[in-house]
Amino acid sequence: MTSCTLKPVSFYEAAPTAIKNKVDLFTQEPARFATRAVLAGVYLGIMTAFAASTAQLLDGYAPGWGKYAFGAIFASTLYIIIVLQGELATGDMMFMTYGALHKKNTVVKGLLLVLFVTIFNLIGAVAISWLISRTTMGQMVEVDGFLHDLLVAKLQKSSATLFVEAILANVVVNIAFMLATQAGKDFSAKLWGVILIIPSFATMSYEHSIANFILTSLGGFTLGPEAIEGFTNWNVIRNWVVVWLGNFVGGGFIMGGLYGWLNLTKTDYKD
Q1: CA gap 158, 162 in Å, rounded
Q2: By CB atoms within 10 Å of each CB, which of 53, 82, 222, 227 scores lowest?
Q3: pTM as predicted
Q4: Are the C-beta atoms of residues 165 and 157 closer than 8 Å to each other?
Q5: How many Cα atoms occupy the beta-carbon half-sphere of 197 within 13 Å?
Q6: Where are the domains of the chain?
Q7: Are 118 and 244 in contact (CB under 8 A)?
Q8: In this predicted model, what pLDDT tens digit does every residue of 80-102 receive, in sequence order?
Q9: How buried is residue 135: exposed, middle or buried, by Cβ count under 10 Å (0-12/13-18/19+)?
Q10: Domain 11-262 falls in which CATH fold?
Q11: Phi, psi of 86 (to 5 degrees)
């Protein structure tokens, strides 16, 4: 009887393969790459709706505690996306920046890839939000409930606050991506890497662009823009753009850029 031990790999070892797979699929089979991005939006939408519904229920019994349930459930979303290999723009911000520094892709191709994934994440997010709004649970969303209050708070934030919170959010998200990447095929280790860090940004209501695609779409379809303070086309677009840029700074420049630079060392001290 033999036992098989799953050996973890360093990010330095695993990242080039992940980057090559992404760039190759984007370049050679964009329809399949787009589908993976749409699926990531769909997975995120399903679990975000579940998280918001659970948070609403918990707030009814323990006011103020719903956000902790939201954060805990939201963490499972990233695990699902990682295991099923969906393409999430906020993770690709790190991989493409890292790849550019290590000459695995060009800056232009990396930026085009991230923009491409963002568009199809949005398509998946809007589509699943509309479908959820047509369900029994979607039609039970309440004004002044958890989703409503969360959206109002997001839409009231200044652009400066959104930008800073978006930076922090994608630092956290890409810590999880790095941990999961180093876990290799050990899915239990991937899960631990995600659930240890992701609830922190979700619970503290930091800003994640793709999650905001979901939340604004879900709120607009279920409650209607008129029921949500500050829900105008301009304000929603402002939120999306500012948060996306902040996510790029946090996930791309800080995580991808910093670890890309660190791993250029000529020594063996690599992550």
Answers
A1: 6
A2: 227
A3: 0.93
A4: yes
A5: 21
A6: 11-262
A7: yes
A8: 999 999 999 999 999 999 999 99
A9: exposed
A10: Glycerol uptake facilitator protein (1.20.1080)
A11: -75, 160
